[in-house]
Amino acid sequence: MKVSSAEFVKSAFNEAQWPGGGVPEVAFLGRSNVGKSSLINSLLGVKGLARTSSTPGRTQALNFFSINGRFRFVDLPGYGYARVPEAIRRSWGEIVTGYLAKRGDLVLSIHVVDSRHDPTKLDVQLHEWLIAHARPHLIVATKADKLSRNELRRHVGRIAETLSAPAGQVSEVVAYSAPTGLGRERVWRAITAALAVSQAPF
Fold first, then answer.
1. Contact indicator for 137, 175 with CB cutoff of 8 Å
2. Total structural domains in the chain?
3. Which is nearest to 107 in space by CA: 199, 45, 37?
4. Three-class SS string for 25-93?
5. Range of the domain at 122
6. In tens digits, what is the pLDDT along the chain, a chain of 202 residues?
7. Which residue from 126, 110, 127 is spatially nearest to 35, judged by alpha carbons?
8. DSSP secondary structure letter of residue 145
9. Are the C-beta atoms of residues 43 and 138 closer than 8 Å to each other?
10. Three-state SS at 146
11. Does residue 202 lie in a domain region?
12. Residue 116 lies inside a defined structural domain of this protein
């Protein structure tokens, strides 16, 4: 897909602050410091649109971006950072699950994991939640350039087995590298297909 424009819309800390409906949305979710912002910036070919931070757990809001004026990317708060106070961790969970459960405009959830590590318990819980609620989703394993080809194949296989689909089917995992662009076309194909299913112009 050709990205002609990508603009920050707003940050939302609760449902009342979500942008108006009627626009298909693609959500990015995963652990803190897993590379969600770098993935978004890489897909859009824009540096610094989605803010990256050296301090995991900083982002506490849903950040909405308008793409080509036709659909939105939504960067959800990261989860699982131990140094964040428990009360804030709970509020983040409510923000994320509330959006995933209620947002009718959501056409695809991109579950971002780190290719260098096995999925955590929270990753597994999120994956199971998406399946249980029949939310279309794609697993993207970032930082693929940090591994050798053999290591990457082995790690991606382990991620796919851990985050298995119903009936024991192995989930599709897209290995991604923001610096090299590995996996970029595959992710865009999934996004384009989800938008097509929504019958929204894009």
1. no
2. 1
3. 199
4. EEEEEEECCCCHHHHHHHHHCCCCCCCCCCCCCCCCCEEEEEECCCEEEEECCCECCCCCCHHHHHHHH
5. 6-197
6. 889 999 999 999 889 999 998 899 999 999 888 889 899 999 999 877 876 544 444 457 899 999 999 999 999 988 754 444 455 455 566 788 889 999 999 999 999 999 999 998 889 988 988 888 888 999 999 999 999 999 999 999 999 999 987 766 557 899 999 999 999 999 999 999 999 987 655 4
7. 110
8. G
9. no
10. helix
11. no
12. yes
Structure tokens belonging to residue 148: 């050798």
How far from each other are the two terminal CA atoms of the chain, in whole angstroms? 9
What amino acid occupies position 106?
Answer: L
Report, in this order, helix, strand and coil percent for the chain, each rounded to 5. 35, 20, 40
CA distance 194 to 202: 11
Judged by DSSP in three states, 134 sits in coil
At residue 57, the pLDDT reads: 42
Assigned token pair, 50: 């989605």
29 pairs with which residues across the strands?
111
Check which CATH number belongs to the domain holding 76 and give it.
3.40.50.300
Predicted TM-score (pTM) above 0.85? yes
